[in-house]
């Protein structure tokens, strides 16, 4: 009589990890007293659905499959050993420590890991002590073994060879300086310096800390042209605001209005707008020469109290 499939078990899907595959696969106590499940040789292409194991295994054997990436794990707090021999693993996902916090043995013999940096994600596994990358292209890279030891300081056995203290010292001597230089090079953001550089390139000055100090610098270290430039890039005065608003009111094109509105926001006066100095506490005049011919054919005068409604348009 033909055997019937177990009740509630669907058809087996080749190349996929399913609850049915986990149920049918051998489960046993290994020689090192670990409860293990054997998922070898099922043409599995991706790690998935391991939550169906219900975190019951100390060891999972996924050897002799077609897995290309080490990821897709659920939280398996009990898992200590992962066997991945003879797959096609070329990438290792980051953040494995969140899902495999107690993993201490990872066997990746005969896979396709090519670059030294590809093993960096393993550095975050807090209990990884045994690692095999034997048969991967990465083994041909210069200082391969020392690089791995420098990245995984808790490692005790690499490629089935014990990690010696002499190797640890050599790895530290070779890669500590290189890592320090790389870390220093990555710290290129200096908030105050970068902001100042960006403002200088954009023609926008930062806020003045002290008005008296700025006036002293203008008088001592700057010529007349430099002082004028500094004043032009500082926060706009009342007279400058009046001058810009007057220029907007007399602008003839939409492009000119946008340019003057930008000047109103930044306080950076266009070259065609000139603001005269103060006279006895009043703003005497603001001479405006908009791009193109002025609507009045000459200069636009703006008095200290903002001018009339016909001369000045309030722009907020």
TrEMBL record:
Biased composition, Low complexity: where in the chain? 213-227
Residues of the region (Disordered) are 206-227, 276-316
- UniProt entry tagged with the keyword Ribosomal protein: no
Coiled coil stretches, renumbered: none
UniProt KW Repeat keyword: yes
Cite the entry's keywords alphabetically. Leucine-rich repeat, mRNA processing, mRNA splicing, Nucleus, Repeat, Spliceosome
Q: Please list the residue ranges annotated as the U2A'/phosphoprotein 32 family A C-terminal domain.
A: 141-159
* Compartments, as annotated in UniProt: Cytoplasm, Cytoskeleton, Cilium axoneme; Nucleus
Q: Which family does it belong to?
A: Belongs to the U2 small nuclear ribonucleoprotein A family.
Protein name per UniProt: U2A'/phosphoprotein 32 family A C-terminal domain-containing protein
């Amino acid at each position: 009589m033909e055997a019937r499939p177990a009740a509630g078990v669907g058809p087996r899907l080749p190349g996929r990890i399913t609850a049915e595959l986990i149920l049918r696969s051998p489960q046993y106590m290994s020689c090192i007293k670990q409860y293990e499940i054997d998922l070898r040789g099922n043409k599995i292409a991706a790690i998935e659905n391991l939550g169906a194991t219900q975190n019951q295994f100390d060891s999972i054997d996924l050897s002799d499959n077609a897995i290309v990436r080490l990821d897709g794990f659920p939280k398996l707090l009990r898992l200590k050993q992962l066997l991945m021999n003879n797959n096609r693993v070329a990438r290792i996902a980051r953040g494995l420590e969140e899902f495999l916090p107690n993993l201490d043995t990872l066997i990746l013999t005969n896979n396709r890991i090519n670059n030294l940096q590809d093993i960096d994600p393993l550095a975050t596994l807090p209990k990884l002590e045994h690692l095999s990358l034997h048969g991967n292209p990465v083994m041909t890279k210069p200082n391969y073994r020392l690089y791995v030891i420098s990245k995984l300081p808790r490692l005790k056995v690499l490629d089935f060879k014990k990690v010696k203290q002499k190797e640890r010292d050599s790895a530290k001597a070779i890669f500590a300086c290189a890592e320090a230089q790389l870390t220093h090079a990555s710290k290129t953001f200096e908030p105050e310096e970068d902001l100042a550089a960006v403002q200088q390139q954009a023609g926008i000055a930062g806020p003045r800390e002290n008005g008296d100090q700025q006036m002293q610098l203008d008088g001592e270290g700057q010529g007349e042209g430099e002082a004028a430039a500094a004043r032009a890039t500082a926060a706009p005065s009342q007279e400058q605001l009046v001058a810009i608003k007057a220029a907007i009111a007399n602008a003839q094109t939409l492009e000119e209005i946008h340019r003057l509105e930008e000047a109103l926001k930044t306080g950076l006066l266009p070259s065609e707008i000139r603001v005269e100095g103060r006279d006895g506490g009043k703003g005497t005049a603001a001479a405006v020469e908009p791009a193109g011919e002025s609507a009045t054919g000459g200069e636009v005068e703006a008095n200290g109290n903002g001018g009339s409604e016909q001369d000045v348009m309030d722009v907020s």
